[in-house]
Amino acid sequence: xxxxxxxxxxxxxxxxxxxxxxxxxxxxxxxxxxxxxxxxxxxxxxxxxxxxxxxxxxxxxxxxxxxxxxxxxxxxxxxxxxxxxxxxxxxxxxxxxxxxxxxxxxxxxxxxxxxxxxxxxxxxxxxxxxxxxxxxxxxxxxxxxxxxxxxxxxxxxxxxxxxxxxxxx
Length: 169
Fold this sequence. Notes:
By secondary structure, the chain is mainly beta.
């Protein structure tokens, strides 16, 4: 049995390999969406708006105290646009209850979040959903009164349409 030395093995590999690496040239980003002329990704503002983006018929609902949209059991649709937009929905409990809030949206179109606020607008909890199309809140409310659902853009940089669904048990 014959064995090849290291130099023989390198010779065999180099004869079969056609890979050439250039470490002196510029580093190019080959990800989809990168501008090959400038080697940069577009900014959020430069991204096109969805042509099918429907207006938010619940506006103005940008404040829990003055303009929160009333919501009962069921669902309402809305839109975060511009990215700094915040939407509030108000529901009233006559007695303690368990609530489920589901925020349905397309995560790849822009990440938005949901929170449950108490009667004094303090956050009780937030939706759970990492890089998924829905966020869910399950919470037991011990007191009667008005509560608020807050829908907003993650880091105030995304726009997106959504449906918020409320179940009270």
